[in-house]
Amino acid sequence: MNSSSWLPDKEFAKAVNALPLVSVDLVLVNTAGQILLGLRKNAPARHWWFTPGGRVRKNETCEACLHRVAMSELGLQDRDVQGAQLMGVWDHFYEDSAYSPEVSTHYVNLPHVLQLKQPLELDALPADQHSGWRWQDAKDAVIAEDVHPYVRVYAQWLFDHGSYRGA
């Protein structure tokens, strides 16, 4: 899908005000049990440490969205995302949106966890959506005040489902 088929911002803001959006998040876990977090540049969740993710576009499958997000936000190829597992379905509610501080956002979010088999260098990651990157121990992310509460839930999920392999 190309950007010429996107709704103009004013129309999209009306849609966001009236409808929930579907999104995916990618919870990457390295061999040390740390999750990858980016410091978000854009609303909603601006200035929070969050996992990479994005909206599912019209006529885009969730799998295709995962691959697009992996490429655009992380520079990962399709083969790098093989084995990502759906963690569940969560509602995410925000007081603002990407297009307006006055329009709230409701995402039906489909986070996927992926155990990385090879290192991912933070310095090589794109800076379009995030102003910085860090690896965070999942056990610390559960309680970290600068990690968004929705990501804290992901970190807790890793413990509850035996996906945490940290020290």
Range of strand content: 25-35%
Q: Outline, from the CA principal axes?
A: globular
List the uncertain runs. none
Average pLDDT value?
Answer: 91
Describe, in plain words, how this protein is organized in 3D.
The strands form 2 sheets. Strands 1, 4, 5, 6 and 7 form a 5-stranded mixed sheet that branches. A 3-stranded antiparallel sheet has the order 3-2-8. With 167 residues, the protein is of the alpha+beta class. The protein has helices spanning 9-18, 62-74, 138-141, 149-160, and strands spanning 21-29, 34-40, 49-50, 53-55, 85-86, 90-94, 105-115, 130-137. It is globular. It contains 4 helices and 8 strands; from the N terminus they run αββββαββββαα. Strand 2 (34-40) and strand 3 (49-50) form a beta hairpin.
What's the quick description here?
The protein has helices at residues 9-18, 62-74, 138-141, 149-160, and strands at residues 21-29, 34-40, 49-50, 53-55, 85-86, 90-94, 105-115, 130-137. By secondary structure, it is of the alpha+beta class.
